[in-house]
Amino acid sequence: MGDFCTSIHCMDGRIQEPLMDFLKKHYDVNYVDTITEPGPCKILAENTNKILVKSIIEKVEISIDKHKSKLVAISGHHDCAANPCDEETQKDQIKKSIKYCKNIYPDIEIIGLWVDNERRVNGF
Ligand SMILES: [Zn+2]
Question: Which terminus of the chain is more exposed, N or C, with fewer CB under 10 A?
Answer without folding.
Answer: C
